[in-house]
Write a structure and sequence with these properties.
Blueprint lengths: L3 H13 L4 E2 L7 E8 L12 H16 L3 E8 L15 H14 L5 E7 L8 E2 L21 E2 L1 H8 L5 E7 L22 H10 L8 E5 L19 H10 L1 E2 L4 E2 L5 E3 H11 L16 E2 L5 E6 L3
Parallel strand pairs: 1-13, 2-3, 2-4, 4-7, 7-8
Antiparallel strand pairs: 5-6, 8-12, 9-10, 11-13
Helix pairs in contact: 1-5, 2-6, 6-7
Length: about 300
């Protein structure tokens, strides 16, 4: 039986403690690396919404943050496979090099956002552009060339020296593999279990890893989807994310942009408003977004401060 006074103390701590709202300095810089691949002229199935995802999310954030943001939009569209030296072609070497450059330059008050729209393997690995002009992602033995794969471990290692706050946004299959669980944290999203989990987390001695936040289109055992047809396609997850920000596809502009944005609020909006069910009997017919669990929420934008 739960003790009412104990629940009051824990809930008061969770709902008012300074640990709940973690924000980069409002004067800090924003660094965005937005990655999208449609796999045209490669030997894997092409995608229709990924380039829209990468380019329009970058533009929406540019309009939101204005002169505080520096963006690298790294896309593979098929035609640009002809120039493997292009630093914005999202090969594994180019992506890791861009991340390394950003990590070295960023300071504690800054925010690094890395977004990815493309294929994901069952272990979560991103499938990046091949380093050959023929577009071969598969090897002769019909396995995927490991040089195109950026794994969870690869990304976490690249980010490990980063002084800035980091947000990873993943719209790909099995992207929930990038959501690192922490026994010392508790999510405020699941209201039904908040008090039991809060009690355990409050007294847990495990270290709390601050500064790295992840939001993804799927859990680690679910696939990401996009509409089969349409004039202007986004992945279901990214479409809901852009709508939350106030993005209008037709005008390519933020209309009535929000003045206060947090990661938990963004997750709620995506979960409630994506145009595909979040649960069901058949995994091929739904996708469930995932988010870093934790008592701390990330303040992404505070336009009034």
């Amino acid at each position: 039986m739960k003790h009412p006074f104990l629940l009051f103390i824990i809930s008061s701590f969770l709902l008012s403690g300074c640990e709940l709202a973690f924000a980069p300095g409002q004067s800090g810089n924003i660094r965005l690396i937005s990655i999208g691949l449609n796999y045209e002229q490669t030997d894997v199935r092409s995608l229709n919404g990924t380039i829209n995802d990468a380019t329009e999310l970058a533009e929406a954030l540019r309009q939101l943050y204005k002169d505080r943001i520096q963006s690298s939009v790294m896309v593979q569209t098929g035609s640009n496979l002809d120039d493997l030296r292009d630093p914005l072609l999202p090969t594994k070497d180019h992506v890791l090099g861009t991340i390394e450059e950003a990590v070295k330059a960023l300071q504690p008050a800054d925010l690094l956002i890395i977004s990815y729209s493309g294929h994901g393997l069952e272990n979560g690995s991103w499938v990046l552009a091949p380093e050959n002009p023929h577009g071969h992602i598969y090897l002769d033995d019909e396995t995927i060339d490991p040089t195109v794969l950026l794994s969870v471990a690869d990304l976490m290692q690249a980010l490990s020296p980063c002084k800035a706050t980091v947000l990873v946004i993943g719209d790909s299959c099995y992207a929930g593999s990038f959501v690192q669980e922490n026994p010392a944290s508790v999510s405020l999203i699941d209201q039904a279990q908040i008090f039991d989990r809060a009690y355990s987390a409050y007294w847990d001695a495990s270290p709390y890893k601050k500064g790295l936040f992840v939001i993804t289109a799927t859990t680690k055992d679910n696939t990401s989807k996009e509409p089969i047809q349409g004039n202007h396609i986004h992945g279901y997850f990214t479409q809901a994310l852009l709508s939350y920000l106030g993005w209008n596809d037709e005008t390519a502009a933020l209309e009535n942009p929000r003045t206060f944005i947090t990661l938990d609020d963004m997750y709620h909006a995506i979960h409630e408003n994506q145009h595909i069910p979040t649960e069901g009997m058949y995994p091929s017919l739904y996708q469930h977004p995932a988010i870093t669990g934790g008592a701390m929420d990330l303040v992404l934008y505070d336009g009034e401060s």
